[in-house]
Amino acid sequence: MIRKSLCLLVLAGSPAAALAADREISLELGTTGHAAEDNWFLFSGQDALPGFGARLGWPVHERVAVIAGWQHGARGTTVSPGDDGAGEFAAAYYADAWSAGAKADWGICRWFRPYATVQAVGQRAMVRLDDDTGEDDNPNQIQRSDFAVGGLAAGGLDFRVPFAQDRFAVASYLELGYQLLTPSDFDELGSLQNRGLAFRWGLGFRF
């Protein structure tokens, strides 16, 4: 009775689907929080890293799928130590994160499936300070990188529009969780703590 009531509330009483954790391919946009510390504000005025990426999923059980994803994010600013612009330089931060884990959903109906996911995350981050961005081989450019590991836990809402006799579906999802990684150490440039809320919006196919 509860399942039917929720279905009716979401999308006018659509019948329940036979299977849930389908194969998945999606593109996504999102933001990942960063600790609000002085080193991070060198690259951004906000304590979040926007990005884009992709996700794949493969069912291993009626309600559980293995998922793997990739996210790329970048932030940058121009830093002026003096009021006259002397010593001005560009500061940029780039990150590529790879994730893998499990997603379990609740098949309320064929249109709407809440889910929870837990994933392991590995991230390669790079920082770059450059006082002449127009020169490719600027000898004054400083670049450092590091690899961080950690995890992500999140909950999401998956909305689907089936077609081809329910063999395929266009799907969109909203996901909110928390990501915690080990600090990234950039030698003499300092370190950054990778932790905060993680939001994702995705669009793709289920088949």
**What's the architecture in CATH terms?**
Beta Barrel
Q: If strands are numbered along the chain, what order do they take across the biggest sheet?
A: 1-2-3-4-5-6-7-10
The helix-and-strand class reads mainly beta
* String of helices and strands: HEHEEEEEEEEE
Which residues sit in consecutive blocks of at least 5 with pLDDT less than 50? Answer: 8-19
Helix content: under 10%
By DSSP, the count of extended strands is 10
The percentage of residues in β strands lies in: over 45%
Spatial shape? elongated
Oligomer: single chain
Q: How would you explain this protein's 3D organization?
A:
The chain has helices spanning 2-11, 38-41; strands at residues 24-33, 48-59, 64-79, 89-105, 112-130, 142-163, 168-181, 184-185, 191-192, 195-206. Mean pLDDT is 87; it is low at 8-19. The strands form two sheets. Strands 1-2-3-4-5-6-7-10 form an eight-stranded antiparallel beta barrel. It has a two-stranded antiparallel sheet with strand order 8-9. It contains two helices and ten strands; from the N terminus they run H-E-H-E-E-E-E-E-E-E-E-E. The chain has a single domain (2-206), classed as Porin (Beta Barrel), CATH 2.40.160.20. The protein is elongated, with a radius of gyration of 21 Å. With 207 residues, it is mainly β.
